[in-house]
Amino acid sequence: MKENMKNEKEETILRELEKIKKETINSSDEKYYSVSVNQIKEVAGKFQLPNREIEISALQNNIIPERYQRNLGVSRPSSKDYSHFNFFYSHIVLLSPSLNFFVNFIFTNLIFP
User: Fold this and answer.
1) Averaged over 31-47, what is the pLDDT?
2) Are 33 and 61 in contact (CB under 8 A)?
3) pTM of the full structure
4) Which residues constitute the domain of residue 8?
5) Closest by alpha carbon to 80, among 95, 60, 61, 62?
6) Which residues have a Cβ under 8 Å from the Cβ of 111 and sit 6 or more positions away?
7) DSSP state of 48
8) Is 25 helix (H, G, I), strand (E, B) or coil?
9) Is 103 domain-assigned?
């Protein structure tokens, strides 16, 4: 039941993105679909989700948020399939100095003596 509701929400978000996307041409004269930062914010607000989640959904469906376009010229695949951008799922972990000390102690004294 939960999975069905999740899929339904994703489909609704995708339909919303499909309605607001616009065809754009980049500096290499290639056509692509884009959405603006404001449009991302509107959709995110409508569904009470972080902007990042909407951007990920857009990228998985070959709709490029405008703020990413300038970097895609370098990493754009020839197939024009943007669903490979899995790095959006990555997270950064910051360790406190005391935890960092503990981890270093474990590695230097217990694991690799």
Assistant:
1) 94
2) no
3) 0.61
4) 2-87
5) 62
6) none
7) T
8) strand
9) no
Give a yes or no: residue 96 inside a domain.
Answer: no
Structure token digits, residue 56: 């990920």
Give mean pLDDT, residues 73-98: 51
- Quote the number of domains for the chain: 1
So what's the pLDDT on residue 77?
42
Instruction: State which H helix or E strand residue 69 sits in.
Output: helix 66-75
CA distance 21 to 34: 5
**What percentage of the chain has pLDDT greater than the value 70?**
59
95: in domain: no
What residues have CB less than 8 Å from 37, skipping those under 6 apart? 65, 66, 67
Q: Name the 3-class secondary structure at 5.
A: helix
Q: Whole-angstrom Cα distance, residue 25 to residue 44?
A: 25
Answer for the pair 82, 62: CB distance below 8 angstroms, yes or no. Answer: yes
Name the band, by pLDDT with cuts 50, 70 and 90, for residue 51. very high
The 3-state DSSP class for residue 24 equals: strand
Give a yes or no: residue 101 inside a domain. Answer: no
- Amino acid at residue number 68: Y
